[in-house]
Amino acid sequence: MTEIEKTLENHQVRPTAMRILIYKYLAEKKIAVALTDIEYAFAKAERTTLYRTLKTFEEKKIVHQIDDGTGISKYALCESGCNCEIEQDLHLHFHCNNCNETVCLTEHKIPQIKVPDGFVSENVNLVVKGICDKCSGQ
Amino acid sequence: MTEIEKTLENHQVRPTAMRILIYKYLAEKKIAVALTDIEYAFAKAERTTLYRTLKTFEEKKIVHQIDDGTGISKYALCESGCNCEIEQDLHLHFHCNNCNETVCLTEHKIPQIKVPDGFVSENVNLVVKGICDKCSGQ
DNA sequence: TCAATAAATGCACTTCTGTTGCACTATTAA
DNA sequence: TTAATAGTGCAACAGAAGTGCATTTATTGA
Questions:
Q1: Three-state SS at B6
Q2: Which residues of chain B make contact with A121, given a CB cutoff of 8 A?
Q3: From the Cβ of A105, is strand D under 7 Å away?
Q4: Measured between CB atoms, does A127 come within 8 Å of chain B?
Q5: Non-local CB neighbours of A38 within 8 Å, separated by 6+ positions
Q6: Residue A108: partners with Cβ closer than 8 Å, 6 or more residues away
Q7: Structure confidence by residue, pLDDT tens digits, A119-132
Q8: Is the CB of B121 under 7 A from strand C?
Q9: Residue A87's pLDDT is what?
Q10: How many beta-carbon pairs below 8 A join chains A and B?
Q11: Is residue A83 part of a domain?
Q12: What is the CATH number of the domain that holds B52?
């Protein structure tokens, strides 16, 4: 049994061929990917299957969904630096206005945000937009 | 000439009847509104007109677009507390998971966010989700 | 003032993302 | 081996966003 299969089973997800492939794909891409991206990569697979696989992964805390402000949901593997399972996903995301890619800055935690009296904060989403390291030319 | 007409002209937007109405509507609602909301409010008007009016307003810095994570673009008037015109729109937004409304917390500025070397930050979007003052029952 | 021009609006589509229902297939457990 | 369950594929739909074009309204300049 491979590493990936173990990981999936640890999250109560049956390691089907499709799921292993999708997991691999997510692991290879360092960036957050949209459903459409996976669709292109797996031209043979059904969009519905990919869609539901992502939903399953999300539910089982294998990936986290990212809203980077483009209006398209993206997903990225929860890795060592990501503690989605225990606490809120509090790292920030960076969206590059040039290459249009979104990356998790797992080591950059979101600072404490104060809200006015009467407001109860349950979750924080922070997306920084700009130029990523690859595009800034260094 | 009314106050609203002046405001529109100050932003190089011709104050047509439709635009004045939409501006009024936005001013009355304290919360960020989606295109659909306006559509309901102005059942007689065409969606395209509303859509393009919002785009015009956005371009001319009369409103700012808000991505609150619901996947639906919302818009709110840039008011005194909002300095979209001069600098980045750095106030945060609060989305209530109960009533589903999104408000600008104009007085709450986004703290300085550090990004790794090579990344250039141009803009920051911060959305706090939780329960708003009206729904938290106080 | 009135025609020429430009801006705004209305209507009909299209596209894209996300989502669901249902049938079929593969897998698991009794 | 068979019944139950989980996963996959196909088809279709919903909602938001966006575009092209014709028509109306407003502005400008002769």
A1: helix
A2: 128-130
A3: no
A4: yes
A5: A22, A25, A50, A54
A6: A91, A92, B113, B114, B115, B116
A7: 999 989 999 999 99
A8: no
A9: 57
A10: 113
A11: yes
A12: 1.10.10.10
pLDDT of residue B88: 59
Q: Is residue A7 part of a domain?
A: yes
Q: Residues B52, B56, B61, CA angle at the centre, nearest 5°? A: 145
Q: What is the DSSP letter of A26?
A: H
Q: Is the pLDDT of residue A46 over 70?
A: yes
Q: Is B17 on the interface with A (CB under 8 A)?
A: no
B122 lies in a domain? Answer: yes
Q: Show residues of chain B in contact with A114, CB under 8 Å.
A: 108
How far apart are alpha carbons B43 and A53 in whole angstroms?
Answer: 40
CA A47, A49, A55, A57 torsion: positive or negative?
A: negative
What's the total number of domains in chain A?
1
The residue range of the domain holding A14 is 3-130
DSSP 8-class letter at A112: P
Please check whether residue B61 is in contact with residue B85, taking contact to mean a CB–CB distance below 8 angstroms: yes
**Would residue B136 count as lying in a domain?**
no
pLDDT digits (tens, 9 = 90+) for A68-98: 989 999 999 987 556 665 556 678 999 999 9
Q: Is the CB of B114 under 7 A from strand C?
A: no
A115/B123 Cβ within 8 A = no
Taking phi first (over 0 means left), then psi (-120 to 50 degrees means alpha), and beta for anything else, what does residue B61 get?
Answer: left
User: Which pLDDT does position A111 carry in this prediction?
Assistant: 85
Q: Is the CB of A54 under 7 A from strand D?
A: no
pLDDT block averages, 10 residues each, chain B of length 138 = 89 94 94 95 92 96 92 87 60 92 89 91 92 88
The gap between A43 CA and C4 C1' (Å) is 54
- For position B81, what pLDDT does the model report? 52
Residues A37 and B21: their CA atoms lie apart, in Å, by 41
Which position has the higher pLDDT, A87 or A11? A11
